[in-house]
Amino acid sequence: MLHPIDIITRNNRRTGRQSNPEDASNRGLWHRGVHVIIATPSGRLLVQKRSEAMIQHPGMLDIGVGGFVDSGETPEMAGVREIYEETGIKATTDQLIFLGVTKFNHRWRYKDRQKISRSFIYSYALQLPSEHNDVAPQHDEVSWIGFLPARSASWLIHQGSLRRFGKLLPTYAYYRKVVRLAKKQLIQQ
What we know:
This protein is an alpha+beta fold. Helix content is 25%, strand content 39%.
């Protein structure tokens, strides 16, 4: 179910208007999103394959979890919600480590339509408490989830795909930045 999202200006200011996520991507309306890099204590990173039913980049790989910030939510609340919805992992806003905000303006084709994602992505890292974590992917959003060694995740970002798993979302510069920041922040803890 698509929840309303707040429409913002190109300078990340509230407009007081709302939209549904699909209409926002059809019309190129600015909104807020969230993305969380999830790591185990040894530094293995969560990688997921998006469901074929997804509007944005179906069947592609994503390092971490993410989505829209729903109307009335803070980015931290959205991060915790997305973690649970996509992986079944329960986290709290206190566990999230803020990595920064990225202005994102991306076009792609979905079926017969041109889509435009214009968003400010609030990025976070989450350190899981143990190496072995039970994940329960929400199959309407996620086909599968795995944990890759950081070196393999870096290879995925560099190459854009892994033969056995598929292609990475085409936001390589973003991934390089947030994975580097996540590693740095998690080591400091």
